[in-house]
Amino acid sequence: MTDHIIVEQSATLPGVQIIRFNRPEKKNAITRAMYSKMAEALASADDDRSIGATAFLGTAGCFSAGNDLGDFLAVAMGGGMPREVLDFLYALVKSRKPVVSGVDGLAIGVGTTMHLHCDLTVASARSQFRTPFVDLALVPEAASSLVAPRIMGHQRAFALLVAGEAFSGDEAKDAGLVWKLCAAEDVEAMTLAIAATLAAKPPEAVRISRDLVRGDREEIIARIDEEARHFSARLQSAEARAAFEAFMRR
Ligand code: COA
Q1: What is the pTM of this model?
Q2: Does residue 203 fall inside a structural domain?
Q3: CA of 14 to the centre of ligand 1 (A)
Q4: pLDDT of 81-114, one tens digit each?
Q5: What range defines the domain where residue 104 resides?
Q6: For 208-214, which contacts have Cβ atoms below 8 Å and span 24 or more sequence positions?
Q7: Does 70 sit in the ligand 1 pocket, CB within 6 Å?
Q8: Whose C-alpha lies nearest to ligand 1, atom 8?
Q9: Which of 21, 26, 250 maximizes ligand 1 atoms within 8 Å of its Cβ, making it the mutation to test the pocket?
Q10: 142 within 8 A of 99, measured Cβ to Cβ
Q11: How many domains does one find in the chain?
């Protein structure tokens, strides 16, 4: 079991499960084992009455550089989108309890798109949200092609997902990807405080209200699958392999 993801229950904030990226030397790039551990934690929170909310956190200056490109290169040699990625996305979309996130610094690829499925995201102004899918000869994932235009409108979603433009913390907040900005050193405390507040509310009322606000998840799952078919084909393309190899050779 990888220790690149740390799952813990907050010692001081009852009801809060923390999922923390812990691979700073690789900018918290996400391997298959890390996806599996996160999916497991989300699923077990659903069944654990002592957990009321989950908070995703990164490390100082880096939330996550997205999918591990070495893993993608291995997949490019044969196979599709890794099963572990899909299991994580399904678990995130289907989670029955509030999920919040705190971002300080880099949030790339799925390190950006996962916040589209979080209920409340806090970020520092110095954060950078970016999805270089097209530059890597890939396509958007995590149902971002469906959810991002709904949240931020076509032009901003296009800038993020297709043009690969970077969004600062302020721009992400303007676009509705982030709820609140705060100082870098306050991101963790603020994220956990929000999770604790949610965890302290009547759980069944939270669950029903959240379901109503989130709407149809089947549509989102269907888009994850549709994107994954394209993504898998792109992963095996010569242009994607060239992009991953160029990164690994730097
Ligand atoms: N997959 C695998 N390794 C990654 C990674 C990724 N997505 N992102 C960073 N790393 C590794 C680097 O290879 C480097 O490893 P090394 O020290 O063994 O050489 C280490 O993390 C530090 O990264 P580095 O590039 O030196 O840091 P930086 O501050 O100059 O740049 C990034 C940071 C995130 C801008 C840059 O690493 C980057 O562009 N990463 C790729 C992001 C990406 O395309 N993600 C996939 C989206 S689908």
Answers
A1: 0.97
A2: no
A3: 35
A4: 899 999 999 999 999 999 999 999 999 999 999 9
A5: 2-186
A6: 210/98, 210/119
A7: yes
A8: 65
A9: 26
A10: no
A11: 1
Return the CATH number at 168.
3.90.226.10
- Per-residue pLDDT of 148-186, as tens digits, reads 999 999 999 999 999 999 999 999 999 999 999 999 999
Tell me if 196 is assigned to some domain.
Answer: no
Ligand 1 mean position, distance from CA 8 (Å): 26
How many angstroms is it from 27 CA to the middle of ligand 1?
6
- CA atoms of 176 and 151, how far apart (whole Å): 6
Determine if ligand 1 sits within 6 Å of the CB of residue 27. yes
Angle at CA 43, nearest 5°, toward 41 and 45?
Answer: 70
180/106 Cα distance (integer angstroms): 17
Q: Is residue 205 part of a domain?
A: no
Residue at 236 is within a domain: no
CA angle 235–71–46, rounded 5-degree value? 100
